[in-house]
């Protein structure tokens, strides 16, 4: 295993843990100011949308400030969907470096997120693939782009930045 792969895995595993713990300030700090956080919708049974500006997305935030706004709503209690936060556990595997340059790497991984909806008394699992674009900023890796390709998109409960 290369040092670069270890560093990428460490960042992805840290991001997952921060989401599980609800440590949003530390989670937001992992992203670059111009980050893209995108979960495309499915156009049909085999194709996902490709342009978040012109096609349907399940989640799309451009810029860390928009993620910060979402976190403010989650914390405020103003978001009915997030009033009772789901219990979540992210598991990430098959981390692979797809491309690399001096200060950036493209990483693909598999994920499964287990959820407990306390209000409804139900459990769910979402799974799919992550695509991360990581860039080195001040000697630290940061997330410049995160694409969540949700494979089981029949959503029985809410989807939010912390639950996928």
UniProtKB/TrEMBL annotation:
<comment type="similarity">
    <text>Belongs to the bacterial ring-hydroxylating dioxygenase beta subunit family.</text>
</comment>
<dbReference type="InterPro" id="IPR000391">
    <property type="entry name" value="Rng_hydr_dOase-bsu"/>
</dbReference>
<dbReference type="Pfam" id="PF00866">
    <property type="entry name" value="Ring_hydroxyl_B"/>
</dbReference>
<dbReference type="InterPro" id="IPR032710">
    <property type="entry name" value="NTF2-like_dom_sf"/>
</dbReference>
<protein>
    <submittedName>
        <fullName>Aromatic-ring-hydroxylating dioxygenase</fullName>
    </submittedName>
</protein>
<dbReference type="GO" id="GO:0019380">
    <property type="term" value="P:3-phenylpropionate catabolic process"/>
</dbReference>
<dbReference type="GO" id="GO:0051213">
    <property type="term" value="F:dioxygenase activity"/>
</dbReference>
<keyword id="KW-0223">Dioxygenase</keyword>
<keyword id="KW-0560">Oxidoreductase</keyword>
């Amino acid at each position: 295993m290369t040092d670069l792969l270890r560093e990428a895995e460490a960042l992805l595993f840290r991001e997952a843990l921060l989401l599980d713990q609800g440590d949003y300030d530390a989670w937001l700090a992992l992203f670059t100011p111009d980050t893209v956080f995108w979960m495309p919708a499915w156009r049909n049974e085999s194709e996902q949308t490709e342009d978040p500006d012109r096609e349907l997305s399940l989640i799309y935030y451009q810029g860390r400030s928009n993620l910060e706004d979402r976190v403010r709503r989650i914390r405020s209690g103003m978001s009915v969907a997030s009033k009772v936060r789901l219990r979540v556990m992210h598991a990430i595997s098959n981390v692979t470096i797809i491309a690399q340059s001096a200060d950036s790497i493209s990483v693909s991984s598999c994920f499964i997120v287990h959820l407990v909806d306390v209000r409804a008394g139900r459990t769910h699992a979402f799974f799919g693939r992550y695509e991360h674009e990581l860039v080195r900023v001040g000697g630290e890796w940061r997330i410049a782009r995160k694409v969540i390709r949700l494979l089981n998109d029949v959503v029985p409960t809410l989807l939010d930045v912390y639950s996928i």
